[in-house]
Amino acid sequence: MGDVVVIGAGVSGIQAALDLANHGIVVHLIEREPTIGGHMAQLDKTFPTNDCSMCILSPKMADVQRHANIRVHTLSEVEKVEGEVGHFRVTIREHPRYIDMDACTGCGDCIQICPVEVYNRFDAGVGVRKAIYKPHPQAVPDRVVKDKEHCIECGLCYDICGPQAILHEDAEKEVVIDASSIIVSTGYDVFDARKKLPLGYLKFPDVITSLELERMINASGPTDGKIRRLSDGKEPKSIVFIQCVGSRDMLLSRPWCSCVCCMQAIKNAMLIREKHPEIAVTIFYMDVRAYGKGYEEYYERAKSAGVRFLRGIPSDVQADNNGNGLRFQVENTETGEVEILRPGLVVLSVGIQPTDATAALAGKLGLVLEETGFIRSVHDAMDTVGTMRPGIYVAGAAISPKDIPDSVASGESAAMRAFIDMKKEGAARVRSR
User: Fold this and answer.
1) Which of 238, 261, 249, 259 is nearest to 349 (CA)?
2) Cis amide linkage into residue 48, ω under 30° from 0
3) Same domain as 424, residue 296
């Protein structure tokens, strides 16, 4: 029997890999980023329990790292897939890290001495990182990566690295894997809020996205958990959340609901009220979709905590002529009244969309995409993870927007289908003898 390839190492892919590995199957976990963990590693808390996100994810990441049956391929992408169920041949390309993985201890001395600071994608641009870096302290593998594009080759990191683990030159590597089954769990990207021009994202520094707020509110994030206006560094007196930015938008041909935005906004609004009861928080919405277990009760808790819910979506965000803040007007569709607000901080609840690599990967795998760009599953009552190509399964937000519990369940389901394939293959070989 061959191995199983899992493409994408967010929480769904991690769960699928662990389930298969615990059944004695060798799993190749392929991730294009320098660390596994996906978007969940960026979050502060999870709804509706307000548990620490990394307290749930980090033990799973550690289990992946030390599991004898899991081979982790970071900074890697699928180049080609050939064959059929039971006999796939997967070619992956490992991009250079410019680090000797065996020699590096992950001590971080090179990070401290590096003089170059650039945009930090993990912190959604709220913070910066060095040209040699770890995405976050709990990264797996616990090794640094050198950003060759921004490195100025000053030589300081080479001098300070005791094990001499930093490489001047490195090259791409091609790895070929024989696999019985493939699981696609490539996750999602968030909507580019710049496409909603009237909302003023990047035009006004105090208009931020929900992901940027997640990094700001996180105690281990770039602001040490302090909520600050990016324009002046002061604590805002009021914060508003604008929902459905890039979701349920027919003008942008994005009719789907992103599933998590309502609950994410409610969660962060509650956290703000708990830590800063002096900050007024308002959520502007079309409909509150609290569909999961305990979600409606969570919504009621938010209202009890003083979070205001106003049914209506602002048309545009403008600079306030009376000061340095923001101003917009909105119709309260429940009362018919038009209100004018001057918030200190505007948070855009950006929707979920397929990753930018999904279409190309689907082409290599021979999979069909939905009109929305997500990967099409068979999706009947008996099969929610199967695809049109036998032996290839899709899990998590690669199928459609999902929250964390649904993504984990989807990963488990895909793992079980891959396991069944291997059992069938083993039985067929026994019969043929």
Assistant:
1) 261
2) yes
3) no
Identity of the amino acid at 4: V
> Same structural domain for residues 285 and 317?
yes
Residue-range definition of the domain harbouring residue 426: 3-95+172-187+355-432
* Judgement on whether residues 269 and 314 belong to the same structural domain of the protein: yes
pLDDT, average across residues 167-173: 96
Q: What is the pLDDT of residues 233-248, one digit of tens each?
A: 999 999 999 999 999 9
**Res. 422 pLDDT band, cuts 50 70 90:** confident
Give the CATH number of the domain where residue 116 resides: 3.30.70.20
Asked which of 330, 351, 372 is the last residue of a domain, the reply is 351
Fill in the DSSP letter of residue 263: H
* pLDDT at 430 (0 to 100): 44
Q: pLDDT for 9-62, tens place per residue? A: 999 999 999 999 999 999 999 999 999 999 999 999 999 999 999 999 999 999
Q: How many domains does the chain have?
A: 3
Q: Which residue has the tokens 């119709």?
A: 331
Place of tokens 């929305």: 372
Reduced to 3 states, what is the DSSP secondary structure of residue 149? coil
Q: Quick one: 261 and 314 in the same domain?
A: yes
pLDDT of 431: 53
- Domain co-membership, 299 together with 283: yes
Q: Give the contacts of 135 (CB within 8 A, at least 6 positions apart).
A: 33, 34, 35, 41, 122, 129
**pTM metric for this prediction:** 0.94
Burial class (CB in 10 A: 0-12, 13-18, 19+), 301: middle
Look at residue 266 and give its three-state secondary structure.
helix
Residue 250 and residue 307 in one domain: yes
* β pairing state of 70-73 and 76-84: unpaired
Helix 53-66 / helix 11-21 crossing angle, nearest 10 deg: 40
**Sign, Cα dihedral of 319, 323, 325, 327:** negative
Instruction: Collapse the DSSP code of 51 into the 3-class scheme (helix H, G, I; strand E, B; otherwise coil) and give the result.
Output: strand
Are 347 and 376 found together in one domain? no
Per-residue pLDDT at 156 exceeds 60: yes
241/146 same-domain check = no
> In 3D, which of 278, 273, 355 has the Cα closest to residue 309?
273
